[in-house]
Design goal:
206 residues; alpha+beta; 6-stranded antiparallel β-sheet; 4-stranded antiparallel β-sheet; 10 strands; 36% strand; elongated
């Protein structure tokens, strides 16, 4: 009977150590969580689907007339969806790194085009990110007046910039998103202390 307190103490110590390891894994998973811009989708200018075009030469006369009118109005409104992906790199491949499932709760973001601030917003919904896996696509719905960031460009330059971004062969390479995620871990909800710069070329962490 005299060994029972000692046995209980050992169990408590082992349990405490396991909990500390799990908490450390959760914290490291959140710290190492990565993001990237995967693509631009559903881009429209004056209601015209830009994804049909590979160059300005592809724009049909009727569409060109509408776009010229839009350009002449000095208010070049565009709508687009910027798709993000989040990755939890902790796949449990090392003995000290048990995978921890995270849930993205909130993502305040600011979109930049060629380092020019475009628009801000926030995603508020639960997006699970399991250890070693990539999340489902995270859509950012954007409405922007392009004339405010491309004011020095002429009609063809603006049209080509739009097509380069959201056209048939478009790329989000000129976009950067700065965000500060809030994540639910097995040990509570935590907000990243640092802002993350998200680009298209690669996954990035804090």
């Amino acid at each position: 009977m005299k060994y029972r307190p000692l046995l209980l103490l050992c169990v408590l110590l082992l349990t405490s150590c396991a909990s500390i390891r799990e908490m450390t894994n959760a914290l490291m998973s959140m710290k190492d969580m990565q993001f990237r811009i995967s693509k631009v989708a559903n881009m429209k200018l004056a209601g015209i689907d830009v994804s049909r075009f590979s160059s300005v030469a592809d724009i049909q006369p009727m569409d060109a007339m509408r776009l010229m009118q839009t350009y002449g109005s000095k208010s070049v409104k565009a709508t687009l969806t910027v798709m993000l992906e989040a990755k939890n790199p902790n796949d449990g491949s090392t003995p000290s790194a048990k995978p921890a499932t995270l849930t993205l709760k909130e993502l305040p973001w600011t979109l930049y085009y060629e380092d020019k601030r475009v628009v801000s917003g926030v995603v508020r919904r639960d997006i699970p990110i399991t250890g070693g896996a990539v999340s489902e696509p995270i859509p950012l719905e954007v409405t922007v007046d392009l004339s405010s960031i491309l004011f020095e460009k002429g009609y063809e330059e603006i049209m080509q910039a739009v097509i380069d971004l959201g056209g048939a062969n478009g790329s989000p390479a000129k976009l950067t998103i700065k965000a500060k995620p809030t994540v639910s871990t097995p040990f509570g909800i935590m907000t990243s202390p640092n802002e993350i710069a998200i680009v298209s070329a690669q996954f990035r962490a804090q």
